[in-house]
Amino acid sequence: MDIRQLEALLAVAEEGSFTAAADRMHTVQSNVSGHVHQLEAELGVQLLVRSRRGTVPTEFGVRVIDRARAIRSELEALRKVVEMRRVAPGLSLRLTEGASERLAVDVAERLLASAVVTEPVADPRLVVEHLRDEDLVGLVPTALPLRGRQPVLLATFAAHPLILPPQGNPLRDEVDDAARAEHTELRVPIEVEGIRLIADLVASGAGVSILPETAVPNDHPGVRTVRIARMPPRRLALITARGVQLSLADQAVHDAVRMLVRSSV
Question: Which ranges constitute the DSSP H helices of 130-264?
Fold first, then answer.
């Protein structure tokens, strides 16, 4: 198989028809059909079927589509790394991962030059530049029977025990706000900050979670995502310390992050 086959499969699954997929890929329908049929022949299973709702994935198709999305994400990440090295080839980077509130403190105290965090950011010591919105999605064990292409209601999703960051975390605040707007009570028996640990707990059957789509591990076989109806997006911002003159190296990284994040929208 090759990437064109996976791109064709994803286009049909996300657009709902071969015709719309061909328009998205700027090609003809026969090319899209050919790529999908070649992929089905190589895998030995049918991946898509036509129904009254359009073209929908089979049970095998759902699994292949999930893996194809993971591959697409990895390729996009690789392109971003290559682009950053092209823009600033002489830089050595130190990347720090952590909760938004901790990163904001480190930037305000000038331990970090800049950071991408979740809004809102209220610290007056920081300059906040909105970058983009990204979807929040449900993370469930692969075996949990929440199927279908339609988003599930938050109340339906919240019937399961939730694994979320602790209160005061910006992501938790957004989920809590969404629940209040939907008049839904959340049961959160497990509070965890580490995204990877959340995925491991979900895979073990300890509960479900709600995470930013870009934070979902692409290589975790025990979890999958579901869409949640009327879930507001997470807002991402680039922050720097107020009154600080960035070095040329820091400015190059700052500009590259802005360009790469916005180009992925």
Answer: 154-157, 170-181, 195-203, 248-263
